[in-house]
Design brief:
This protein is of the alpha/beta class and about 325 residues long. It has twelve helices and 15 strands. A nine-stranded mixed β-sheet has the order 2-3-7-4-6-5-9-10-11, sandwiched between helices. The N and C termini lie far apart (about 45 Å). About 45% of the residues are buried. Bound molecules: threonylcarbamoyladenylate and magnesium ion. Magnesium ion (MG) binds next to loops. Magnesium ion binds next to loops.
Length: about 325
Amino acid sequence: MIIDSEKASELLIKGKIVAIPTETVYGLAASFSDLLAIDSIFVTKGRPSDNPLIVHISDISQLSFITDEINETQLKLMNAFWPGPLTLLFKKKAELLDRITAGLDTVAVRMPSHPIALEIIQKTGPIVAPSANKSGKPSTTRVEHILHDYGGLLPVVDGGSCEIGIESTVLDCIAEKATILRPGKITADDIQTVLPHLIIESSSNHDSIKPKSPGMKYTHYSPNATVRWMTPDELDGVYSDTVRYLHVHGKFNSKNHKGYHSNFTQFTKDLFDQFRFADMEHETEIAIEPFHCDENPIASALLNRIRKAMKAEVKLNHDEICS
Ligand code: TXA
Ligand code: MG
């Protein structure tokens, strides 16, 4: 059911859940103070209850409901990157519902830059919003994706297709050393332009590291089709119309394969849409041309999402291609 932002605010205040657009992906929103509505998010998405939610705010003053401790690093990053696709961890205020943080003593917070999201939060106060996809499905970047996952019953505000297309960067900078728990559009280099001396570790492209972010242990974003790396030469030997080829380099042009080609920014924006489209077309494989993380600032986050969509046995040769 498509609704406008006014109606969305009304429903959220009444304790309902609503899908809303953000600049990254669509979120499934509930008021941060409504336990029943938050429960309903977990049930509706089919989300494991040990995977905490991100609180979304529209004004820094709303942080006072969420945390009592803001350090210099957090302050500088909020000033530099909010509103925008950077989620920061804070020490949780005792009053904040444990259901949001899955019992952790930290809470993830971001201020989205999408005007519709900001307008809604200004009226409702802070909301929690995980990505709106059903658990295990690729994130939703268009209203059609939400209608596909939930049918027409879930109220959703149409904000068009999401500008960035992958979820926010999640950064833990509570302690002196910062850790990127989930890579996104805001990179370590971006962060270091504001805080040149901050030591930043990345924990997300290495499966062996114990997950610090509960969400990292779940395989998200898996389409039904098998996602694998494939060079243009390898693809040349494959004769199948059930393979979709995604590539950024533009060196390959085959009449035998359905394909998608764009630059890194657009590729990232369209990634989940391509995954979902392949499933709709009953394609069996999504072959992706290897690329290197250094090729573009977004490449590392894009790689992270592609890896998450790969089955374990397909992932194996990945590190040889791009580490
Ligand atoms: O771009 C985004 O962040 C989107 C839009 C809707 O804002 N939201 C989103 O939420 O991606 P979700 O729930 O799909 O992903 C949140 C991630 C999960 O991996 C979760 O484990 C992690 O953030 N997270 C949340 N709270 C955390 C905490 N206190 N400590 C560590 N990780 C946390
Ligand atoms: Mg998600």
